[in-house]
Amino acid sequence: MSAVPRSRPARLALWSAGGLLAVGAIGGSYVAGLRLWNGTPYPPADPDRIAVRLKAQAQRVYDEAALPRTPEAPSRVGTSACDYRGLRSIAHIDQGRRDVRRFELSWRVTDVPEATARSAEERTRRRLERQGWKLTLQDVSDHGFWFEQPVSGDTIDVDWYRSTGTYAVTAYAPCGKVPDGFDEYAWAGAGWSPE
Length: 195
Hints:
Blueprint: H1 8-38, H2 47-65, E1 75-76, E2 78-83, H3 88-91, E3 96-109, H4 114-130, E4 134-139, E5 144-148, E6 155-161, E7 166-177, E8 191-192
């Protein structure tokens, strides 16, 4: 049997289709390789919107606590480093990314009696459960807990330390890619004090 000769346009179409498949395979491999190297990209973060959200959460927990006094020191929304993802993280062990930050706001009051602390924790716990937050950690040693909001990934950490009577609360927002030029130390929207 002999092969049927093909016309020039048919041969050209086959070559073109083969070339497109090869380019697509190379491009797909490149994209997959980048994804494997860099890992899942961090979502963009708007520091001002995150600060508003964390301040509202801190205020809500402070109001629920109904403690006999205010926090000792003014608080501010701070940031901490986030790790590299993917295989790239192996090349950057113990190095955080400068363009990706985790946000947090903490406050604490000392000399809080145990009964007051227990009541405050219970009010916060009940509210978070009603609002659909999920318990992620129950600290049995110092009587605290962590709840996570499933949609935003925000977490609230509430602790009471018997040795000092310190009632401590921290609200966290997950890691996100901050805008170019973001400067935590010159950030006007970071300050918070309870109302």
